[in-house]
Each structure stands twice: as C-alpha cells, then as structure tokens.
Amino acid sequence: RNRKLVAMVATKGWDKQHGMAVRQDTRLKRYIQRNTQVRCLELGSGSGVCGIALAKALGYSCKSTSKNTANVLLTDLGDPAVDLLKENIRRIKHFSPVLPSCVEISAQSLKWGDSLQSERSQSDEKFHLILGSDLLYNTRDSYDPLIRSIKDHLIPSEGVVLLAVRWRKPDLEREFFRMAESSGLKFELWKEFTRSKHFEKRSPCQLSWKEYGNPESDISNRFFHETMVTVRKTMKSLGTITEEDMDGMDD
Predict the structure, then answer these.
(1) What are the CA-CA distances from residue 144 to residues 79, 148, 149, 178 (Å)?
(2) Distance (Å, rounded) from C-alpha 176 to C-alpha 167?
(3) Are β-strands 103-109 and 69-76 bridged in parallel, bridged antiparallel, or unpaired?
(4) Are the CB atoms for 79 and 112 separated by under 8 Å?
(5) CB 80, CB 49: distance < 8 Å
(6) I want to staple 209 with a disulfide (CB 3.0 to 4.6 A). Which of 124, 162, 177, 198 is the partner?
(7) Residue 78 CB neighbour total at 10 angstroms
(8) pLDDT tens digits, residue range 177-194?
(9) Dihedral of CA 223/163/49/70: which sign?
(10) Is the pTM for the entire model greater than 0.90?
(11) Rounded distance, CA 187 to CA 178, Å?
C-alpha cells in the first residue's frame, strides 16, 4: 500500500517536468512524423514515473493525426516490480485519463543482458527510443549487461538512447560511457533539455560525460570548486562532498 502511494506521489512531482522536456526534443517529433508506430522501451522503470511521462509527452505529438501511434514498454526485474508498474499504469488511466488513444503503455519483466523476443519474428524486439533514469547506481558488474540490453533492442542507425544520470562516483560512471562508446554507441549532452528552465533549476551543470569529475578537465575542476551545495543545512563546495555527505545533500 505504501509502495503504491509513494509511486503516485512521485508521478505528480515529475510528470510535468519530464513531459515538457521531452516535447522540446525535435528528434522525437521527427520520429512521430516519420514512423507510423514509434516504439519506446524504458529500462529499470521502478515506479514507472519517467515512462508514463514519456507516454504522455508522445501523446501530444501523435494525437493530432490518426495515422501515427506510439508504444511505450516499461520494464524492471521480477514480478513484484512489474506488478507495481501495472498498478500505476492502471491508476494513471483510471484516475487521470491523460493518455490519448494513440499511445499504448504496458509493463514487462526484463533482466539486463536478456532479450525481449519479437511477437512478429524470432529476432529481438527493436525500439526507436530507449529511456533510462539513474541506472548507474550499481557496481561496474551491471554495465556489460546494461549495454548489451541497449544494443540488442535499439534500432540501428536511427535509434536514440535517452539516459539521465545522477553522478555519484564519476570515475566509475565515466567508465560506463567509455564502454558504451567502444561498443558503437555515442552519447552527447541533450541540448534541448539543457536550454529548458526546468533543467537549469534542478541541474545547472552542462558538462559532458568526458568532463564531469575528470581531474584532467579544467572546466570540471572549476565547476566542482565554484559550485556550492547544501548538506544538512550547511553550504559546502561540491569538490569536498563525501559519500556520507551525499545522503544529506539537497538535490
């Protein structure tokens, strides 16, 4: 019961912010215009907040035409996680009918490294957009299966990975991006998002993954020295923050 309540409260807090940011991305609009069915996959969905916000945002683009549709699949590991996702999808549809009929949203269990089988063929299911939020909190052991899941399910050449990262251990997390790019993926800062007022309010940092926390980067060193954050009501330089401080740091 508490788990469902927390999920619904989180939806209220994140929905507008993520929905507005996603609608500003011209690439998503082009997908809607170019493809009759835009397929989206969220990895590590948790409560489904971001995936549901994405479905709502895609609805703004596809509801204007009867020819285009969007499909959003939320995934996480295990039956309890999927049950929560399905419950939140049901609640969103029942209590807040914000999703137009052109958008379909569903949930399924997926272990990173495994593949979703296509119902239309024996090959892996492919998606135009793969969404992930705060997926790098685990150890390096999770990076290989995560990258494999992304590559297995992303449509080659035109697919996009939309990844939101909260940096905790920059040296370790930069290793994920190095591994991903060596496998053929390419990551860049989402410029449409960084220009939005919502991004500036919550995360003013506009450093690339190669720069953030890199001691050889002058711009990163300056950012860590000059940026002040609140830890248990005390202002501290970002460069002096410890792991213990992070538990008491304002987002």
Answers:
(1) 23, 6, 9, 11
(2) 12
(3) parallel
(4) no
(5) no
(6) 177
(7) 10
(8) 999 999 999 998 877 777
(9) positive
(10) no
(11) 10
